Amino acid sequence: MDHFDLRDGVLHCEDVPLPLIADAVGTPTYVYSAATMVRHAEVMTDAVAGAGNGEPLVAYAAKANSNAAVLRQLAGVGLGADVVSVGEYRRVRSAGIAPEKIVFSGVGKTEAEMAETLAGGLFQFNVESVEELRMLSAVAAAQGRVARVGLRINPDVEAGTHAKITTGTADNKFGIAYQDALAAYAVARDLPGLKVQGVTMHIGSQLVSLDPLQAAFAKLGALIGALRGDGHAIGVADLGGGLGVPHGDDQPDPASPAAYGEMVRRVTAGWDTRLVFEPGRLIVGNAGVLLTRVIRVKPGARHPWLIVDAAMNDLMRVALYDAWHEMNAVRPSGAQATYNVVGPVCESGDTFAMARTMDRVGAGDLVVFRTAGAYGASMSNNYNSRLLTAEVLVDGGRWALVRRRVDLDDLAGVADPIWR
């Protein structure tokens, strides 16, 4: 469920008509519903309640959408954060997320990032290699601190999602190979400055079936038993994220958070660990739309080209992952047409859909790309010297600009550099 609904023939975000935002801020603009993201956070928290030993930690994957206003909304309902850079760490701390609710993931943590986050505090480093263990050990010893760690294990399980968002097979860069896990934990035990407290895995994003997750979790449970047999005190199991979200009537429906939670409770029964979850898209995906305006409709060989003012630099997911985004007119007439939907960037990859049957629109009309709250604005850029997309947060009948549109002077760089 989201809070984007037609009222008197006009699409609203909560109680705010989208044309009002377009007129005030311009297009393209991301528009987020606070009520939707808060509801999704509560649904996820409720779904995993009672799983594991102690209160589960639901650590929102900040990479999905790291806008400060979004992070503050999620901090307000008690979520923690999964971060993958020191920049994300600073953002989530500024938003009010407590250190004891933060996990630091990622395959390429630097020594400087380790030092800052260890000094600032966090729940756990999710370590992805023996080499990283050694670096973190040296950083912790230099500070006279102890770094709590969980080792990320690659279970070699095919997630059944797009290849570019699959993260748990032997050919992916993430984690320590399952067969090397016992040896890696033996190394960690002997390194100073480390407290080995957990094990973690994450196999991919936008999973619609629970089967790959269940298979991966079963392997994780077996590993926990083997590690305890070797004398390791494993008290934390980070199950990652990846549960998919609905993308529209023409796309497969993913398993529900409730079904996911039931599976987790069943598979992890007897583990005696605190569980950590890293949802991102699940929380914010359907809480946002990309609001764009039609520039013109151009005749095509098979179907007309619907050219909008949003482009691949504003929403990269289609070009990167062949992602599907439902498209709707803000003022639908009831008529439909079939278009090739494209943006103005000078790349053939700047194509959002081919032969898409959708609301009939014309020049000047407003259109939304649905399910754009995750990996939309956070991946946007200034290619073709286009202005960075604005972002708006709606809360009931009020709205606020939460990221301004960067002007051309900010993009130009230094015309007369000072040479050194």
Automatic annotation (TrEMBL):
Every Orn/DAP/Arg decarboxylase 2 N-terminal domain range: 55-284
Enzyme active site: 346 (proton donor)
EC main group: lyase
Residues forming coiled coils: none
Cofactor(s) this protein requires: pyridoxal 5'-phosphate
Enzyme Commission code(s) on record: 4.1.1.20
SUPFAM superfamilies membership: Alanine racemase C-terminal domain-like, PLP-binding barrel
Residues modified as N6-(pyridoxal phosphate)lysine: 63
Domain Orn/DAP/Arg decarboxylase 2 C-terminal: 30-373
Family named by the database record: Belongs to the Orn/Lys/Arg decarboxylase class-II family. LysA subfamily.
Function: Specifically catalyzes the decarboxylation of meso-diaminopimelate (meso-DAP) to L-lysine.
The protein, known as: Diaminopimelate decarboxylase
Organism of origin: Sphingomonas ginkgonis
